[in-house]
Amino acid sequence: MGEKRHILLVEDDPDLSEIVSYNLGKNGYAVSQVSSGKRACEISREKTLDLVLLDLMLPDFGGLEVCQFLRMNEETRNLPILMITAKDEEEDVVEGLQAGADDYVTKPFRISELLARVEAFMRRANKDQSYRAPEMRVGDLHLNLDLLQVKKNGQDVSLTKTEFYILWTLATSRGKVFTRKQLLQKVHGPGVITVERNIDVHVASLRRKLKNEVDFIDTIRGVGYRSVPMES
Question: What's the pTM value of the predicted model, to 2 decimals?
Fold first, then answer.
């Protein structure tokens, strides 16, 4: 039997934390529970993690700061982050995703929905470990799926895992139009319910980080996105 996947749960509501932790444990995950952003950052340096479930509102410093801390450190820059919060205003969703979160779920939520999101992240991690894909060049970009790495003219471009998968999906199917739902399924796996607006935020972030490669991703109004054919 393989080693259990390790999830860091950052939640200051003790009742919710206990419920979520119990259900994760029942489904075979190892869980570390913390209630503060400071402790979350410490744990991320002390233990090898597979996923972070991160509340946005914390008593010391918030989930956004924790998210930014994880993304700035080499060891955790690709660590999947699922934000959990009572906030559901669009600007809060955008802010969380731009800080580096891979997905976002609002309270109250069904445990079954949360478990489905977690399973999707773990399936994606299993695929990362079992499949060593070739590298790819698109224009002045160099993509490496094995390392989840993008270089632009030889310089690293810091992407979240979700941003990388969106870019890789578009790059490997140049000219094909993907609806937002299709891109979500490519990134998170089938059967996962999430907000389609999330894709727009990730694409906007990709365009900003890729800078003059903005024209590589073409918006198909009312449908979704495609990559514009470029020289490889």
Answer: 0.64
